[in-house]
Amino acid sequence: MKREGLARSGVTSLFGSAFAAVAALVLTAIVGNMLGASGTGLFFQAMGIFTITTQVLKLGTNSGIVRFIAEQRAFDRVGAEWRILGHALVPVAVLSGVVSVAVWLFADALSTWLAAPGDAENLAELLRAMAPFIVLGALIGVLQIAARMLRGVTAFTLLQSVLLPASRLLTVLLAVSAGGVAAWGAFEAWLWPLPVWLVITAAVIAGPAVRDFRRRKLNTPDERPSFRAFWRFNAPRSVSSGLETALEWADVLIIAAVASPATAGVYAVTTRAVRAGGVVDKAMRVAVSPTISSLLARDRVAEATQLHTRVVRVMILMNWPFYLLLISMGSAVLAIFGDEFVIGWAPMILLSAAMMFQTACGMLQSILLQGGRSTWQMYNKSVALGLSIGGNLLLVPRWGIWGAAVTWVLVAVIDNLIAAFQVHHGMRVDLQPLRLLPAMIPPVVVFGVGGAFFSWWGGTSFVILVVGALALCVLYAGALWLLRRRLHIDGLWRKIPVIGRRA
User: Fold this and answer.
1) Reduced to 3 states, what is the DSSP secondary structure of residue 4?
2) Rounded Cα distance, 335 and 165, in Å
């Protein structure tokens, strides 16, 4: 078995996540500047509907594939990985095909329910444009996570985080550069790369899947995960995965429905900027989840605890500087997308603070899932989504995007506190919050105090943003080098084995 070190897989994943985040921000800047707030709102409303639909139709199979293949490898079993992929792919393909037809047939009725008055016709066109791509969007998500387990982090990162976002950015840029393109044309261009990368991803995983199929007789029937066992684990995850995605997009869709596409556009751009800081979290989950699954499967809770603490320390050191810059210089960031969006800076401060709290909580969701507590997570996300929908419906009509920002903070705090209690007390994984405090001090001092100084000294122009960010990054790198032993940074590069791909 070929293994990848935690450092290597983490850095690879981080690079891919960073590239995807930058590509998403550039895409948002192109759409914002070319389509304006109203067109941007309609574009992201359609993107939100498509993303929720395809993520729900993946049926949570990403966690099931990681968990069951990691479990097979933890006990050195072979010949069952192709079977796990089959368990995942068949239901997704059938159900997503049915939903694609339904969206096409009922586009007018759905748009009347989802769009603000006067925008139903535009949204109906977007729904019909996305219908043929729904099957592709669901299947490519399953195949990409299969590539992560069969081909390793590098292949997965290239396919999901580099090549697909880059091609989407290129097609949208070409479409809007042609002139006269509305939200419909930009959104359709965003969909075009899907069939190409679906075929390529299938080709990438074909080799190891076939080799594993040939070794199917090397395991006994009781060692093979059955369809029933796979979906017993995955059934609650199917729900919670959809709930997570709905939670991510519910506020944008509600604002578009009860306020206006322009208001939704401002809020969507603001949240896209804030969510870009999640690249480290995503990279660490991709790199570490199989290892945590393997450790928990063998009841090595102490090692899982140690690994989690080290990973969260990295997440704080790398994530908090970004959020602190958004707090101090957010207006310069939002001006990149167009002058209409600068009004989102004040709510952005609340969103950034909430994301800092979430970063400090760590990989709670991954621990719940890889520890076999997918049902707990499903209940958690049900509560969170209920709070999000209720809060947005109550506060958005009164406070606009401020209401959505307040709801975001409440949901983030409650969701993470519930998960922290479950992980700490129910799974015996010690979260060790006091050991995280030293990692919080450098970003607060350098980017919090330093960012506030640059804003006070030079204002919040784009030039000051660039100069200040570069100067603070240099200072921060020096501080981390000097404090590397106190912060245990030097110990992060020890190669902890991560379940990789088979030779």
Assistant:
1) strand
2) 23
